[in-house]
Amino acid sequence: MLSALAAVLLASGAANADTIKVGVIGPLSGSYSLYGQNFQWGIQAYAEANGTSVDGHEIEFVYRDLPGVDPAKARALAQELIVRDGVQYLAGTYFTPNALAIAPLLEQGNVPFVVLNAATSSIVEQSPYILRTSFTMWQNTVPAAKVAVENGSKKSITVVSDYGPGIDAETAFKTTYEEGGGEVVDTLRIPLSTTDFNPIAQRIKQSGADTVFAFFPAGAPTLGFMKAYIGNGLKDDGVGLISTGDLLTEPDLPALGDVALGMQSTYHYSADHDSPENAAFMTALEAIGADTSKVTMAAVAAFDGAKLIYEMIDATDGEQDPQTAVDAVKGMSWTSPRGPVSIDPETRHITQNVYLREVAKDGDGYVNKEMRTFEAQPDWGLAQK
Ligand code: PHB
């Protein structure tokens, strides 16, 4: 008969060679499902290029659908993944409130969480086990405000969704634009549920601003706003629009058509990024059957998020040791499909280039063509603290 100690050792040895589960929470149904699908594409592309095991530890991604902003459901799904499914890592969440709801579970559950989209600066401050491979609104908006000033804009109006990332975007724009000598004449915050943007377009018109800065979560609202901006004649009247790339994601460009040509935005990733790493990413995406005309920031965040998870599994030899895991990727740097990146050891957020892009024609389709690089941008929201 086995001694009790030998049985424990055997069991832990077996656990070592076992499958390591990673829970991924994102919008797989509903109006934001394209972005959850992008999470899946990015993770599958990483596995396609790097295999499905690390040091003999097989890695299994377990997906859970969270279609909208629903903190209670986010918490329940994360809890279930940790307790019932036994995941060693969590990843995902498209929306900020969902990430914030998961944060309090991590230390108790001994689980690192790699944020794959949610972009409010403060998220990483909620737990030492949170890492982020996406972006923050501050990171992408500071360059947008600088571009507006350089374009000669003097009076701006901001319009944002009334929740975390919208407030961050508004504050980042106003602070940077006014430091540059401009004046923000009005700040509009609108409900996340807004679907009719025509009244907003009218208010922008009446404000006397020469430029509008706007942020909504990428998906139905961003396309709705862009259509109202164009349809209400703001573009024709010379009211400039500057935004982060959330308003001009690749899947929306065909729906906007030629009227969007030349529109500027600042962002950390364009599917058109010209580099060997991005070309290899596209090849891996094609190999897994992804629609490469619909590849967005969510796919590259998931690709790099998977890289961090593989590194953490390697560093811990598959053991559930979240502090060792997180410490192992602090300060890590590599060349992502988006360009050079690193994990800031203080904030655990990704430092990356932000590009000024313009919508351009590419054969039958449209791309965000990168025109200029703001190098190695930190999360300005945490950097200024
Ligand atoms: C967020 O909720 O943090 C969020 C969602 C979609 C975006 C940007 C930020 O495009």
UniProtKB/TrEMBL annotation:
Pfam families assigned to the protein according to its UniProt record, in alphabetical order: Peripla_BP_6 (PF13458)
Family: Belongs to the leucine-binding protein family.
Taxonomic classification: Bacteria, Pseudomonadati, Pseudomonadota, Alphaproteobacteria, Hyphomicrobiales
Domain Leucine-binding protein, residue spans: 19-363
UniProt keyword terms in alphabetical order: Amino-acid transport, Signal, Transport
Entry-linked CDD domains: PBP1_RPA0985_benzoate-like (cd20013)
Family matches, as InterPro entries: BCAA_transport, Leu-bd, Leu_Ile_Val-bd, Peripla_BP_I
Gene3D superfamilies in alphabetical order: 3.40.50.2300
Name recorded for this polypeptide: ABC transporter substrate-binding protein
Cleaved signal peptide residues: 1-17
